[in-house]
Amino acid sequence: MGSRPPGLLFLTSLLHIWHCAGGQGSYTIDTVLLTIEPRNTVQSGTAVRLRCQVSVSHSNIPNLIHSFQLTRDDVPIYTKNATEDTVEYAINPARAADSGNYECRVSVKNKAKASNSQKLDVKGLQTPTLHLTTLTPYENEEFKATCSAPEEKGPLIFQFYLRFRTGSPKVIKQLSQGGNSSTATLRLSHIGNCILYCDYEIRLVSGNQKSNSSKEAELIVKALHITPVINILPSNNLSEGDIIEVVCRVVTPPSNTEVFLTKDKVILKQVRAAALSHKFTVREDDSGELVCKAEWGSVQKETSQRITVRSLFSKPQLTVEPTDVVEGDHFKLTCSVTIHDSNEIEKKTMQYSIFKDNTEVANTTTYFTVAQLSASGNYTCNATSHSLTRTIVKESQKYVVKVKVPVSEPVLSVVGGTLFLGKPFLLSCYSQRGTLPINYTLYQPRIPNDVKVVSKPGEKAIFNLTSITQISDIKNILCHATNSRLKPPMAGTGEQLLKWSNIIEPVSKPHLTTEPRMEDISEGYNMTLVCSVQSGSFPINFTWYSTRKGFLDYKISWKLKESHSISNVKGDHAGGYYCQCTNPANKTKRSAIIIIGVKMAGWKKGLIAVFCLLFLMAIVLFLFYKKRLPKLKTRRTGTLSVKAASTKVGRLSLIQAEVNEAANATPGMMGKSIWSEHVSGSESDDNCSTNTPEKREPQYSEVQLRQADPSRVPVKQGTDTVHGEVRNSQQGVQEVADARNISQTETVQ
C-alpha cells in the first residue's frame, strides 16, 4: 500500500480534533464500579488491590480519555488519566492507617460519575519496640527512651508507662508526632527497681485503635551521693564586721561534680571539685540563708544554714532641709546614725562623708549650700566606724535633690485669642519659667476654685469658663501658679486679658430717638432717626426699619451712635420706626418701636386760619345785619317788602307810592293788581334762587290799605286782602313773599 497524501492526513487530524472537542459525537457514562480485593476486611500486612472500572456508551468517539480519582474518606489518594476503562491501585502491605471509606470518581470530558463507597477495614497494629539509652540511671539523671512501630503509617500517639513491682502502671510521658517513632527524655527520682514499656494509638475516621504494649524493660535507679555538707566558722550568730568562713564539701562525688555557694539566689562562689571554702566580712544585711549546692549533670542536691548578723549602728540617714529646694534659697543636708551597741561603737569615733553623684562634697555630718540648678543631683552619705578588729562602712539611701526654679508670673490668655462676652470660653494660664509640676488655681467671684496640675513641658493649664457678661467681671479673674509649698504663689490677673486678648462685647439694647422731637416733626422739614447703644465692641452695624416701608438704611460705625436722615418729611412718613444693632459678637439687638406723627405744614395751617377767620366774619356780618334789619324797616314807613328767610337777594316790597298808585286805580282792579304784582314779584324772586327740593303751597297774608284821596281816586271803604306767597329755598331756609299787614287808616275826605 502506498503512503497517504499529506492533504488526507491533515483532514484526518482535523476530524479527530473535532471529535475530541465534542463535535457531533455523543456519550454517556453508564456505570462506575469499585471493588476491593481480596476482601473488605483484612489483617494488617495483607496485600490489598482496589479496582475501578467504568462503562461509557458513545457514538464512535475514538481514544476516549477517562480521568480516574480514588479517595479515602473524601481525601484524594490516587489519580490517573487513561483510555482504558479500568485502573488498579495497590496497598501492600495494608496497615490500620489504610482503613476507611473508598470511592472512585470517573470524569469523561465534562461529565462525571462516582462509584458506590467501599469500606476497607484493616485489623491489627504492629507491636512497638522500646529502646533505652541506659538501664541503670542515677536518681534524677536524664536518659532517652524511644518507642517505634516502623511498619505503621499515619500520625501515631506514643505513651510511656512506669510500673513498680507492686502497684499499677502510670503514664509518665505522652508524645504526638507525625512519624512512626518517638523519643522521650525521662528522669526517675525513685531509687530501686522499676519497669518501663510503651504503646501507641492511631486515630481513624472510624475511631481510634490502640496497639499492644511493647516488651517491658527493667531498670535499676541508683542513688547519687552528692549531698554537700556546710560548715560556718566561727559561728552562725555574728556581729556586723565579723569575718566568717563557709566550707561546702561533697563526700566521694562522681567526676564532673560542681559545688556552689549561694545567698538569696546570688552565687558567692563556685568550683568544679569536691569542696569549696569562702571567707567574707558580714554586714548588717547578710542575715539569711546560705545554700551549698552540688550538681552532677542534671542532678542537684543542696544543704543550707542560716546566719544572723547583729547591727552595731543603724544605717545612716540623709535628710534635707527644707524638703522643697528652690533656686536661690539655702538648704542643708544632714547625715546621722543611731548607735545600737555602745560597748562596741563610740559615737565620737564615727566618721561621715556626704557625696553628690558619687563625688565627695563634705566630710562632716552637715553640708550647707545655696540652691542653684547645678546643685541638683543624687546625694548619699557614708558612716564609718573603725576599731582594732573591724572597720564598718554603711551607706545611706540615695536622696534625689531637685532644685526647683520658682514659677514666673502666669499669663492669662483666651484660647483662640477672642473672648465673646456672654459665651463660654477656654482660658489659658501659663508660667514661662518654673520647675514642673506646677499647680494652677483659678479664682472667680461666686464660682468655686478650679485647680489644674501641669506636668509636661510646654503644657498650659486650660480652664473651661462659663459665660462672662461684663468686662468688669474679667478684671476679677485671678490665676495662681505655684510649685513649692514654701513660696507664695504667683498671680496673673484679668487685666492681662484686657491687654492681650480681643474681647468682643455684645451691643446693648439700642435706643431710637428723633431730631427734632417727635412732637415737633412737621411736613416739609428734615427728620433724623438717631440709634444709640450704651456699650458694645466696634464695629457696630446699625440698621433702620419702618413698620410700613421695611428696610431704610444700613451703616457700619466705630461709634456708639449713628443716625439716618429723612429730608422733606411728608405725611406718608408717619408711622412706626425701630433700629437693630449687631457687632462681631453676632447678637442682634432691637430697639423699641416709636410712633411718629407728622404735623401739617405752617402755610397750610395759615390758609386754614384765614378761611376760618373769613367764615367767622361772614357769620358776624350775617348776625349783625339780621339784627339791624328790623330797625331799618321801621324807619321806612309806608314801605311794603317781602323778605326771604334765605340768603337770596330777591325781595318783594311794596312802597308807599305803589300803594298810592294802586289806590288811584279802579277799585275793581286794585286787588287784582296787587295780587298779580305780588305773585309776579314772588316768581321773579324764585327765579333768582336755587330750585327747592319740593314745591310748597303759597301762603297768604292780609294787607290793610289806607283810604284813597277822595280827590284822586274813587272812595271805597273796606279792607282788601293781599295774598303773598311763601317759598322755601334750596338751602332749606323758608322764603317769604308776603305783604305784611299794613293797617293804615286814612280819613277820606
Automatic annotation (TrEMBL):
Region Disordered, annotated ranges: 677-749
Compartmental location: Cell junction; Cell membrane; Membrane raft
Cellular component GO terms, alphabetical: anchoring junction; external side of plasma membrane; membrane raft
Entry-linked SMART domains: IG
Record's bilayer topology term: Single-pass type I membrane protein
Keyword field: Cell adhesion, Cell junction, Cell membrane, Disulfide bond, Glycoprotein, Immunoglobulin domain, Membrane, Phosphoprotein, Repeat, Signal, Transmembrane, Transmembrane helix
PROSITE patterns for the chain: IG_LIKE (PS50835)
Extent of the signal sequence: 1-23
Transmembrane segments: 606-625
UniProt biased composition (Polar residues): 679-692
Domain Ig-like, residue spans: 30-121, 228-308, 316-393, 510-595
GO molecular function: transmembrane signaling receptor activity
One GO term (biological process): cell-cell adhesion via plasma-membrane adhesion molecules
Pfam family, one: Ig_2
Keyword Signal: yes
Predominant place of localization: other
Gene3D superfamilies assigned to the protein according to its UniProt record, in alphabetical order: Immunoglobulins
PANTHER family: IMMUNOGLOBULIN FC RECEPTOR (PTHR11481), PLATELET ENDOTHELIAL CELL ADHESION MOLECULE (PTHR11481:SF5)
Full protein name: Platelet endothelial cell adhesion molecule
Origin organism lineage: Eukaryota, Metazoa, Chordata, Craniata, Vertebrata
Record gene name: pecam1a
